[in-house]
Amino acid sequence: MIxxxxxxxxxxxxxxxxxxxxxxxxxxxxxxxxxxxxxxxYGATELSTPNIDRLAAEGVRFTSGYCSASxxxxxxxxxxxxTYAFRGERTGIAPPNSxxxxxxxxxxxxxxxxxxxxQTAVIGKWHLGLGGPNGPDWNGDLKPxxxxxxxxxxxxxxxxxxxxxxxYVHDHRVPNLDPADPLWVGKKKPSPDHPTxxxxxxxxxxxxxxxxxxxxxxxxxxxxxxxxxxxxRFRDEDLADKWVEKSVEFMEENKDRPxxxxxxxxxxxxxxxxxxRFQGKTKLGxxxxxxxxxxxxxxxxxxTLDRLKLSEKTLVVFCxxxxxxxxxxxKDFALEKLGxxxxxxxxxxxxxxxxxxxxxxxFITRWKGRIKPAVSEEMVCTIDMCAxxxxxxxxxxxxxxxxxxxxxxxxxxxxDGATGRDHLVQxxxxxxxTWALRHKEWKLHRYDRKTARNVVVEQKxxxxxxxxxxxxxxxxxxxxxxxxxxxxxxxxxxxxRQLKHxxxxxxxxx
Length: 510
Prior knowledge:
CATH architecture of the largest domain: 3-Layer(aba) Sandwich
Largest sheet: 10 strands, mixed
Structural class: alpha/beta
Number of helices: 9
Number of domains: 2
Distance between the termini: 24 Å
Order of helices and strands: EEHEHHEEEEEEEHEHEHEEHHEEEEEEH
Radius of gyration: 22 Å
Number of strands: 20
Strand content: 15-25%
CATH class of the largest domain: Alpha Beta
């Protein structure tokens, strides 16, 4: 159901379904670890996000917008390929030296749009591996990578910034790399005297709480080890500025032809080190400051579209790769300074869990002059980008690709009476046997790993033993605390069978 605001008096609106191909510019902004309650248009009161709020005011704000997994690599895999990550190999959180997870020849949202004549770019966090079976050749050509699956250009953070190495990747190379100082990345300490977060903890400007205690760069210890590449390394504080700079360049270069920009933010992910001009902007510590920095990035992209007179020619999609987490390995006081802020909004859980807080996130679409301002309760998911944008641009999906992507274009565009998905499979990470199936108002949890699940206790993740299956009614029990399997055995059995069929059948798109 879509609820239209009194501002919806625009003259250029679609009254019915999209029937013919169009080629608007498409800017897909994916936040990192941003929760449903982290932005003010979704209820945050302890910080302000005016630019994201403006997107929502000028477009459709979804209250049932999802990613398909509660961690980054599987969500990004499924968004780009239109296929649930649990169907792929090595789709859990990618290690620093991961080879390319999405192989050349795989249909992606980028290749579909390239087929429609778009210039395509991904700028920001990648975390989907680079290189052949042996992993990245950091001092050589880093391929296959984005350019082999439909992107014309890329400027990347190759892994995620709590993992080594802290260098950029431009297309197939690490820029500014000095051959006399080769870059080495590995799993083991390269020498006994190599500084780490354990041996040189007193030198850190941000201490670690768990797991992030290997090689030190910029006063922060990371996951994994690396040496060399000194001239190529970046400063954490400058990441957001670099993403905006490169995105503006791409939009300016392609202002006269259709373009697809995947702006892949890293701001809210650890280590949270926003630029100095944002530090202290909120009372929530660096995590809150990073949300404000993300909002600035959104504003800069919107200003560029306005300056280039492209706002009425551009579909903007704003989403997140998973829900929020407070202590994710560093002592940045995110939990201690939380106060009244509830990053997951009204939902239970967050990153790493299949509760609603893990996968239900901010989700906004805006196309000025074409989308009526509205709030929609329809269920949409990032995995639906392939089918929906293919429909928009007149492209056909291959029978053997985009296996779980549904055409929800009309819902994304706010068409009167449009419906979204009626079901969605959610996973935590990789394909390790923790699942959830939402079907309309019902939500089934399935735990195949000895009945352990992640729950949130006072904003912290904890493990609790539960039955393999649990059933929740999201209308009556949005926090997923009352198992209603015994009261609704037929529904529980039906959803168990439906989830089993989706997993085993290899596809859900007909």
